[in-house]
Specification:
Keywords: Signal. This is Secreted protein. Residues 1-19 form the signal peptide. The chain has 3 helices and 11 strands; from the N terminus they run αβββαββββαββββ. It is elongated. By secondary structure, the protein is an alpha+beta fold. The longest helix has 19 residues, at 125-143. The strands form 3 sheets. It has a 4-stranded mixed β-sheet, covered by helices on one side. Strands 6-5-9-10 form a 4-stranded antiparallel β-sheet, with no helix packed on it. Strands 1-4-7 form a 3-stranded antiparallel β-sheet. Strand 5 and strand 6 (101-106) form a beta hairpin. It has one domain (6-199).
Length: 203
């Protein structure tokens, strides 16, 4: 796994401007921040019925994601966050914790400021799947049949998530750091997401 802020170190001073200025804490002006691009992140999951030919009642049919999968699904969950950190006494280390685990980078006090961008897997895949599975089951109950190909039955649904409505079951993103003279308080972020669930037949 790549170090947390390798991209930031490479892009120091050359990355895009942050969407909002740094938040300073006290006279030391020590901080570590993330900023999501202004647009909401968008993910679309294609869902298919698992057992449509078993004779089960429509409401008993289970649904699964069939696309995207593998590396494409991981890439779909990544957000290119704008990031910055500063320590008047020198940055010792930085940490990000979230749905894809914990990543650390040690700088050993060699920099006072650093900025740039980082691609981070920002959503729990099981949480995304659960939302679309629930949506598909609700759509089936409303339609009375498996909605695919049924006139008048909706097959595309979009749900919005963010700070006021976090994605259920997906860990928030937490960033923290250590200056040479003490810790930087941790800050949590809830990414904004527009999730589209599309009910369809597999290819």
């Amino acid at each position: 796994m790549r170090h947390l802020l390798c991209l930031i170190a490479i892009c120091a001073g050359t990355g895009p401007a942050l969407a909002q200025g740094p938040i300073f804490t006290g006279e030391s002006r020590d901080y570590v921040i993330l900023r999501q691009p202004q647009r909401d992140h968008a993910i679309e999951l294609l869902m298919r019925p698992v057992n449509p030919a078993t004779g089960a009642e429509p409401q008993a049919v289970e649904w699964e994601r069939w696309s995207p999968n593998g590396p494409a699904y991981t890439e779909a969950r990544r957000i290119e966050w704008f990031a910055a950190a500063s320590c008047a006494s020198g940055i010792e280390s930085l940490r990000i914790e979230g749905p894809s685990g914990t990543q650390n980078q040690t700088l050993g006090g060699t920099r006072n400021t650093i900025s740039g961008s980082i691609n981070y897997d920002s959503f729990d895949p099981d949480a995304l799947d659960a939302i679309c599975q629930d949506v598909a089951q609700q759509a089936t109950a409303t339609c009375g049949e498996i909605p695919i190909g049924e006139p008048g039955c909706d097959t595309v649904f979009t749900r919005a998530f963010g700070p006021s409505m976090p994605l259920p079951g997906s860990a928030q993103i937490r960033v923290s750091g250590q200056c040479s003279n003490g810790p930087i308080p941790a800050t949590t972020y809830v990414p904004r997401l527009r999730l589209t669930c599309r009910l369809t037949e597999s290819e």
